[in-house]
Design goal:
single chain; 903 residues; Threonyl-tRNA Synthetase, Chain A, domain 2; 10-stranded mixed β-sheet; 7-stranded antiparallel β-sheet; 32 helices; binds adenosine-5'-triphosphate
């Protein structure tokens, strides 16, 4: 040691000339002003001024009497010899307080403290923590309103509550409007100021959330500053919505967090808050976070026990369970906040742009009305004036119909599409942001990870209607599987049900943690249907299902799905989901284009649609009820649908078309002869509300036709929506599953059920009430299902049902149970009831073709073949000639009537 000390030689003295030269070259006044330290010092000074004013003013309230004589000396107070002031801040405090309070604005002068505080914080932290412009507006208006409001009722009092300015303005007001007028004006002004400044959401202090709706309405010319006013507010930063930095403890009652927010900066990106889908970027100061690591242990043992009891401890998801959250809508855009004196700890404003652009702000709601009109009139226009234009785009069919072409809607040409105002917005359409909740969850996630020595680079949040997605970018070298294995720990530390970890989010290189929001937002059907994506798409069967986490509307084409399997435990939103699908189709399709076959073993869920029987429903010939509830009838109906499918395939084959779209186009262009059985083919959507019930009672009899339809019916425009409460393997068999690539899972009771429906876990962790996972196109997306209430559906179907419909429901082909017909084939007495009709058809057309009977009489192949055999036996047609049509032996109808009369 001694040696070392000895060896240590003093550094060589710097060359003074050189030093001088350097200094002169580097330091300029501008640089001093721009220097980060100068700004920080200015910030500190400003904060000091705020504190100084606060103490001086407060002290003045108690000492003004003693000090007022001194204060009246003006600046002389600083030079007079015998000055004795009692203000805590001495002569300066007394003088300034007197100037601000007595000569100025009375107690409203406290607003100056907030102004300097805001200025100080902004300068000190080198960023726009609070909006200065907004505070300036609050200050100016507050000074005017508060000073007059205080001066008026306290006129004549010893203490100058409203200051000289307040008194002067109050006197003037009294002179102009009288005492009563002044009272009213002031009451109004104070009320308006309070509403503007502390808006009504502050009435709920238990959570202190702030919705977008709660933001003050922006003035006509919305600028950046105004936009900021719509940002959420931190509880402790009351009145300074938007941004938080270095907050003290953010305490969330639900999460029992203590001391969560220190040294973490949060920026609420204003642009997104105004639009929708805010991406809230948290920047993490890792060094300091280490101190927060103890947070997890802050959960009391009792709560941990509760969480165990609530079943929160669960196995981590297996690899193949990891679902994709939505399509990669747009890559996050990173915008460096333009500001001076950037330091390594500086924040970045990360904005995740979304595709969708409606909802969330109040403006969108106002637009809704316009959308209603546009949507409505467009549909009615298209339907009603179809033949007034030379060439028109047929409503929602996506092909053009020139003059002279067949118009399928002609029979119901006055049909009016339901208007959007039949639906409700369901109160809050606004995504609720609770910054305290976000902050607390973020801190918990970081702290939990930190506990396991997992460092992260960044964490960002996307607030959805039901859940918030926290995206984590782990530090280089961190194994993803480690984070995945912490699912239970994170769920435990957040004390919330329904947490899912997606590691990694496909295509993004981040890890997602979905945490349910404390306050959830209802996604109304109305918003979805009013959206541009729904109104202007080229889908054959557009269905609005719900909203993704990033608030993008999930609107897809049922025709390309092409069938949908829905499962979910009872009470989790299945029926609402089915109604949402049906209502979206009713809003987009003309009765000539779409028919529903509704199967409802529960007998109550779909009966509401009975009133649209003559417009949109299909049923078996001779049936009273159009909603099928009886299992036997369901079997008949499914088989009838199979016959319809076969018949349609025959038609398509004959027309040389590959699918229903080509066929209908050809038919509309009058290239197909209706005399040969051709007709415009509407889409048919089969909806089964409780599939499990059917399988239990009819088993294979139901499963087989369903599987057949699912395999083949797509090209001929028959689509299936099958829902079940019990997604067990004996209900959703391999055959069914294989043919339903698109599946929806509402909350289910077990992971096994989730695997049965989605081939992946996750649905057991949903939170119910329309929270769902959709497996579509190989991706699993979490959605909040659109909500449409029964009264709304009632209004829509009544609106349709009140209009003129077809004379009867769309008739499906008749199905006769083969077993019932056995042994009756050639018994003349037991001849098929349709024998005479078939005979007339054959004689009229002079064509002994089984497929003609099949198509025109809407019969299955077997029954048509049997009829043909009976016709042969009766001598009406000749022998079977293989692929060629049989000879017709009766050449006129008179001759036929004679033969028939003889039987
Ligand atoms: N998308 C949604 N948004 C908000 N709340 C919903 C949503 N879907 C369902 N709910 C709530 O959940 C309740 C139950 O929904 P629903 O009747 O659709 O359940 P279900 O799964 O069909 O039940 P069941 O199988 O017993 O008929 C509804 O009354 C509603 O309050």
């Amino acid at each position: 040691m001694a040696n070392k000390l000895k060896k240590k030689t003093p550094p060589p003295a710097p060359d003074p000339a050189k030093l001088k030269e350097d200094k002169e070259a580097k330091v300029t006044v501008t640089e001093v002003v721009k220097d980060e330290r100068t700004t920080k010092i200015a910030g500190a000074v400003s904060l000091l001024v705020a504190i100084f004013l606060f103490i001086a003013f407060t002290s003045y309230i108690f000492t003004w009497k003693e000090d007022q004589d001194m204060a009246r000396l003006g600046v002389g107070i600083f030079t007079a010899d015998d000055v004795k002031v009692t203000n805590l801040l001495g002569a300066l405090g007394a003088y300034i307080s007197h100037t601000f309070i007595a000569n100025g604005f009375g107690l409203a002068s406290y607003l100056f403290c907030t102004f300097f505080f805001v200025l100080g914080v902004n300068l000190l932290f080198g960023k726009k923590v609070y909006s200065l412009a907004r505070n300036l507006r609050y200050l100016i208006l507050g000074l005017l309103v508060i000073s007059v409001a205080l001066a008026f009722p306290t006129k004549g009092a010893e203490f100058s509550w409203g200051g000289a300015t307040g008194e002067m303005m109050s006197d003037w007001l009294v002179k102009v409007t009288g005492k009563v007028g002044t009272t009213l004006i002031l009451a109004l002004a104070v009320l308006s100021y309070v509403i503007w400044r502390f808006n009504p959401v502050f009435k709920m202090p238990q959570r202190k959330p702030r919705t977008m709706k709660a933001a003050p309405p922006p003035p006509a010319e919305t600028d950046e500053a105004e936009a900021e006013e719509m940002l959420p507010v931190y509880p402790f930063a009351k009145g300074d919505p938007g941004v938080l930095e270095t907050g003290d403890a953010v305490e969330d009652n639900n999460n029992k967090l203590k001391n969560g927010g220190k040294n973490i900066s949060v920026i609420m990106p204003k642009q997104q808050a105004v639009n929708e889908d805010p991406m809230i970027a948290f920047e993490v100061n890792e060094k300091e976070i280490a101190e927060d690591a103890g947070l997890v242990t802050a959960i009391p043992p009792k709560e941990i026990n509760d969480l165990y009891a609530a079943g929160l401890m669960k196995e981590p998801l297996a690899d193949e369970e990891e679902p994709a959250t939505g399509e990669p809508v747009a890559e996050p855009v990173t915008v460096k906040t333009p500001r001076k004196n950037a330091t390594p700890q500086d924040m970045e404003l990360e904005i995740k742009q979304t595709v969708d652009d409606e909802i969330v702000d109040t403006e969108a709601e106002a637009d809704m009305e316009d959308n209603d009109d546009a949507f409505d009139s467009e549909a009615v226009d298209d339907a009603g004036k179809a033949n007034e234009e030379d060439e028109k785009v047929y409503p929602f069919t996506n092909f053009k119909i020139p003059d002279g072409d067949y118009e399928p809607t002609l029979e119901l040409r006055d049909y009016k599409f339901p208007a959007l105002d039949l639906l409700e917005a369901h109160g809050s359409e606004k995504i609720v942001h609770d910054p305290a909740e976000l902050e607390a969850n973020k801190n918990q996630i970081i702290a939990t990870l930190k506990n396991y020595d997992i460092a992260i680079q960044r964490i960002a949040a996307t607030v959805g209607p039901t859940v918030t997605l926290y995206e984590i970018v782990p530090a280089p070298g961190v194994r993803i599987s480690r984070i995945k294995n912490l699912e239970d720990d994170i769920a435990l530390s957040l004390a919330a049900l329904g947490i899912r970890i997606i590691a990694p989010i496909p295509g993004k290189g981040t890890i997602g943690i979905e945490v349910p929001n404390v306050r959830k937002t209802v996604v109304s059907m109305k918003t979805l249907l009013a959206s541009d994506k729904f109104q202007h798409n080229s889908f054959a069967l557009p269905i609005a299902i719900g909203k993704k986490i990033d608030n993008e509307n999930f609107i897809v084409d049922l025709a390309s799905m092409p069938h949908l399997l829905m499962a979910g435990a009872t009470g989790q939103g299945k029926s609402v989901g089915i109604n949402a699908l049906l209502v979206s189709l009713l809003y987009k399709k003309h009765p000539s284009q779409l028919k529903f076959v509704l199967v409802d073993p529960k007998k109550v869920e779909l009966s509401i649609y009975r009133v649209i029987e003559k417009h949109f429903l299909a049923k078996l010939p001779g049936e009273e009820e159009s909603i099928i509830t009886d299992t036997k009838k369901v079997v008949y109906t499914l088989n009838a649908l199979c016959i319809e499918m076969d018949n349609r395939y025959d038609l398509l084959k004959e027309a040389g078309c590959r699918n229903i779209k080509e066929y209908n186009e050809k038919f509309v262009k009058r290239k197909l002869n209706p005399q040969k059985g051709h007709q415009f083919l509407p889409f048919i959507v089969l909806v089964v509300d409780e599939f499990a019930d059917l399988i239990m009672t009819a088993g294979k009899e139901v499963e087989m036709p369903i599987a057949r339809l699912a395999q083949l019916a797509r090209a001929v425009g028959i689509h299936l929506i099958i829902a079940t409460q019990r997604p067990s393997v004996n209900i959703i068999t391999g055959t069914i599953k294989a043919n339903f690539p698109a599946r929806i899972a509402f909350k289910v009771s077990s992971k096994i059920d989730s695997r049965t429906i989605l081939d992946a876990g996750g649905a057991e962790q949903l939170i119910g009430k329309g929270d769902m996972l959709v497996s579509y196109n190989g991706e699993i997306t979490r959605l909040q299902c659109a909500f449409v209430d029964t009264p709304e559906v009632d209004r829509v179907v009544d609106f349709i049902g009140d209009q003129r419909g077809y004379p009867q429901a769309f008739l499906l082909p008749e199905y006769v149970d083969e077993k019932e017909m056995e042994g009756k084939d050639f018994d003349v007495a037991d001849r098929d009831p349709l024998f005479e009709d078939a005979a007339r058809l054959i004689v009229q057309n002079q064509m002994g073709s089984t497929s003609l009977i099949q198509r025109r009489m809407k019969l299955g192949y077997n029954r048509a073949g049997r009829l043909m055999d009976q016709l042969e036996a009766a001598g009406i047609v000749g022998k079977n000639l293989g692929s060629k049509a049989r000879d017709v032996l009766v050449h006129s109808e008179t001759e036929l009537e004679e033969i028939l009369g003889g039987f």
